[in-house]
Amino acid sequence: MRTPLLTSTVARGSDGRYYSTSRPGSSQSTSSSTSTASTEKENVRHGVDPEEAKQAKKTATGQAWLRLFRLARPEYRLLGGAVGLLLVSSSVTMVVPFSMGKIVDIVTSAQGTIPFGLTPGQMFAGLGAMFVAGAVANAGRVMLIRTAGQRMIARLRRQIFGRIMSQDQGFFDRNRTGDLVSRLSTDTMVVSKSITNNVSDGLRASISAAAGLGMMIYVSPKLTGIMLGIVPPIALWAVFYGRYIKRLSRRTQEAVGELTKVSEERISNVRTVQAFSREAHEEARFDVEAQRIFGLAKREALASGLFFGGNGLAGNLALLAFLGLGGRMVMRGEISLGDMTSVMMYSAYVGSALSGLTSFFSEVMKGVGAGSRLFYLLDRAPEVDRNEDGIVLSRSQLQGAIRFDGVGFRYPTRPDVAVFQGLTMEIAPGSRVAIAGPSGKGKSTVAALLLRFYDVHEGRILVDGHDLRAVNLASWRSCVAMVPQDPILFAGTIRENLLYGNPQATEAEIIAALQRADAWHFVERFPAQMDTYVGERGVSLSGGQRQRIAIARALLARPRVLILDEATSALDGTRERRVLDALDALEDVTVITIAHRASTLRRSERIFVIGDDGSVVEDGSYAQLLANEDGYFHHLMAAQAAEHRE
Ligand SMILES: Nc1ncnc2c1ncn2[C@@H]1O[C@H](COP(=O)(O)OP(=O)(O)OP(=O)(O)O)[C@@H](O)[C@H]1O
Description:
alpha/beta; Rossmann fold; elongated; transmembrane helix; nucleotide-binding; P-loop_NTPase; transit peptide
């Protein structure tokens, strides 16, 4: 946690001198923050990245369809094979009613003749063999389709994850983690299913509907005419009512999704909930949501009951009508019993194929929706260009001279608030400098800009004379290490976390880094030592322990520029001194410390003080700055000392 020592502000009086004031809170300009707040509220309310919404509007559905099918291109072979097998299995399926009709005729009439002069045994064996072939083709089709689908899911997930990892921080400021994860897990699945399983089912339904209808007409045009009066209305009813149920079920799913997101957040922050005794409140909130889901699910249950009951009844009534009308035709000798059986079976096939076809369209539309969410990620070029072809900086050659040259910067989510304006700083190679200033004035932003999490809007940042934007980003980042204010460790062991900074580090190097960061003595005392599991985000370590492990991790990366953002704030004076002494002993490393505490600031060769206008208002050594009694820094320190005394 950040030490709230400099919450007081420093104001410039009408005489141009600086005064410390004990007014709490930030002195950010109010007019600009009002308009920013409205932009932010908009974003939060819709829960969508406005940039994505804009792009989605531009994309026509037709284009999205095409693109969706293009995604399946690498799977064309498997899908082609599956379509071939589908034709085989569908042909077999479509022959079934016809054969059944023939068999009925053969076994019920004395004159029935077996086609091709076959014996009954041969006929049954032939049909059996054909069914086996159909079954094998069907099994093959399902395997090919599923394999193609899974390959597509794996490929998409890999691509999407890669794209997410390479995005700039502005993107992460706008998008919620839960939403990105659901794109990775659910949307990839929906997209893949919609063009593999679903296309195969749609194709099968089309073949069934067309061939079934053709065969019905071939067997008995009159009975087909009668059936066409009965089956389509029932199928249509089933389709529309089915859609209504689907809508209900989607709403339930969405409500469950929302509940999952909220409960996940509350459970992962259960300490805060318990600390504020808000358990009952959270339970009540959860209960409201759970009741809402139950209400929706109850409606769905009622509707489903009606649907299935109604479907069964409609099916049976249709059958009755069919038997009545068809039976009369058989009695009049207009058609054979076998033909009536065939038409009855075909009409059942056609009915189910029709409803299959409508669900095909709605599934493809679902795929288009999920696809557009993926396309946005696949297409989004990070605002911070990684500049792979840029100047490559090597750790062995980098001097570590840094210059902020008239830097202007606004966060992408708050374009109305300028954090920096004309910020200029010159940091000599291998020096120890500090950034000071009141809370919320952009000290951590300096670190974010140095790591190029964001690009500056005006001016430039130079490293050894190169504009950071012209440098290969990965090469620069491999020269820099940062220990953030509240370092996060990965759920894993201490060793795994340390190796994250340098996977090649030897055991001796790891221990040396831990010693430098004053962490070895406590790690050594853990029963599992470096194999101690640190818990999710490192929660099973104290704040100070986490900070020191993070410092060791940064040291292991052997940086030429080290940024410490309040990296020792959780340590007591003695421990902090030990860590800072060890860091001071680092050779050929430029160390930039962001700090509030006088004890930390005092050690720096030069301090840059960021003022209210987002620029450096003063710089110099601690002693020089403090000596200027009218200066900003002097008043900042005075305010801090006054707060200490209180
Ligand atoms: N990701 C972000 N998106 C939008 N605004 C941000 C973001 N991060 C910080 N800010 C805003 O930028 C300003 C500077 O923040 P920064 O964290 O750099 O301040 P700081 O000087 O390090 O403060 P502190 O001493 O409290 O840590 C603040 O007004 C803050 O609200």
